[in-house]
Amino acid sequence: MAQEQPTNYGEQWFAEAAERWGEMPVVIECNLNALKEMETQINKRGLDWKQLSVLEVGCGAGVLSLELAARVKDVLAADPSAAMIAKLKERQAKAGVTNVETLNEAIERTEQLEPASRDIVVISLTLHHVAKVEELLAAVRHCLKPGGLFFIFDFERMEDQSNFHDDFDTTAAGVHHTSGYDRALLTEMLAPHDLKVVHAEKSFMMTIPKEMMDQAKKTESEGHGHEHGHSHGHGHGHGHGHGHGHGHGNTGPFPILCAVAERV
Ligand SMILES: C[S@@+](CC[C@H](N)C(=O)[O-])C[C@H]1O[C@@H](n2cnc3c(N)ncnc32)[C@H](O)[C@@H]1O
pTM for the whole thing? Predict the structure, then answer.
């Protein structure tokens, strides 16, 4: 299990992943599922989409941010990976989208965010990579308007506390991960930050595609590939880093939790 503190945000690894991230069917499918869930929750509350100001934390190549941008007033898309942000910008330019701003940062320093400026904050398939969760939650609290919504999509914590990340030791690649979240854990974590969990249900399933697993195995057989900056040019997924030779190849499907918290 890779639970040590990372030295960075896994930029080298995510830079390699960025190459194909936004085109991978599983990434597109998961983010469209997340979008559908957001539509249900937002429509249920009768919010006016065209008035919504959104922050996406860990936006990656911007699959969700660009979909949201077509529906809302504006989107701030943030990610510590410069390569992911570059991919987002490419796709944004192609689509002619003008209401997305980018921030090449992990959202942990609240001073860079305007207070009470966002109606929605969303973090999709990324919270399990965030080491400084307390800082992140303080930042979410800081920039959400009172009554604003915080959406989390992430691996549901399993009884044995495992997800496929646990097949690989990603610490050497600087990629932190946890084993996912459930309602009780999120409720406890979010409450001190004035974020009240009002919904937490299994939303959709994620199956890790063969190309992600193959890449993980390849990386592993090459030893410390990422530390030496290998670039394979295609198909990096979550499964990466150095394995310990146990339980490899669990492609799921893994349940993805949708949690919604209100800023009280
Ligand atoms: C698994 S990808 C998900 C990207 C995107 N949300 C999606 O679903 O396609 C995780 C992303 O989180 C970013 N990331 C890593 N550590 C982070 C942190 N501490 N805060 C915010 N984002 C982080 C990575 O750079 C990467 O783009």
Answer: 0.86
